[in-house]
């Protein structure tokens, strides 16, 4: 069973692989945070029945990309667009490795403000309803063993 924290860690790993010099926040950054950074935010999850033991999940995250201001306190929107592109390129293979699974991922630019850019991520995958193992013994089905 995949947990939200497993996906958080996989997104974090991807960001660190693409931008090893930047900080990745998984909690709301404070007032005086390092602006050469990212913030990963869980948005929502939805699920629907797929079978008796399986559910289909859709999980949504947003990555917020920050850049430091220049000497005149302006933010480089071109740099923000490049950061968005580089992360989307890293996601172009169509999946993100989470533990021993490869989750289907769709990424898109979520827009841009004066001082930050957004990337929206959507993960689609099937998961077990529970991690419990059914250890009910099987019964013989009416034939004799010789």
Structural features:
146 residues, alpha+beta, 20% helix
Commentary on this structure:
The protein is an alpha+beta fold. The protein is 20% helix and 40% strand. It has two helices and six strands. It has helices at residues 4-18, 77-90, and strands spanning 23-25, 37-49, 54-66, 95-98, 101-112, 116-128. Strands 1-2-3-6-5-4 form a six-stranded mixed sheet. Strand 2 and strand 3 form a beta hairpin.
Question: Nutshell version of this structure?
Answer:
The protein has 146 residues and is of the alpha+beta class. It is 20% helix and 40% strand.
List the helices and strands and how they pair.
Blueprint: H1 4-18, E1 23-25, E2 37-49, E3 54-66, H2 77-90, E4 95-98, E5 101-112, E6 116-128
Parallel strand pairs: 1-2
Antiparallel strand pairs: 2-3, 3-6, 4-5, 5-6
SS content category: alpha+beta
Helix count equals 2
State mean pLDDT (0 to 100 scale): 90
Estimate what percentage of residues fall within beta strands. Answer: 35-45%
Q: Give the low-confidence spans.
A: none
Nearest-angstrom radius of gyration? 21 Å
Count of β-strands = 6
* Cα distance spanning the termini: 41 Å
Helix content: 10-25%
Shape: elongated
How do the strands of the widest beta sheet line up side by side?
1-2-3-6-5-4
Instruction: Report the sheet with the most strands, covering strand number, pairing sense and barrel closure.
Output: 6 strands, mixed
Order of helices and strands: HEEEHEEE
| Quaternary | single chain
């Amino acid at each position: 069973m995949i947990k939200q924290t497993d996906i958080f860690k996989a997104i974090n790993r991807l960001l660190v692989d693409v931008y090893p010099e930047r900080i990745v926040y998984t909690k709301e950054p404070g007032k005086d945070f390092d602006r050469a950074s990212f913030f990963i935010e869980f948005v929502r999850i939805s699920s629907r029945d797929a079978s008796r033991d399986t559910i289909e999940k859709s999980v949504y995250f947003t990555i917020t990309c920050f850049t430091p201001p220049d000497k005149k306190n302006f933010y480089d929107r071109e740099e923000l667009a490049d950061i968005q592109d580089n992360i989307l390129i890293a996601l172009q293979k169509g999946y993100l490795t989470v533990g021993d699974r490869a989750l289907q991922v769709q990424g898109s630019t979520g827009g841009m403000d004066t001082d930050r850019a957004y990337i929206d991520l959507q993960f689609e995958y099937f998961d077990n309803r529970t991690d419990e193992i059914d250890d009910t013994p099987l019964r013989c089905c009416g034939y004799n063993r010789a």
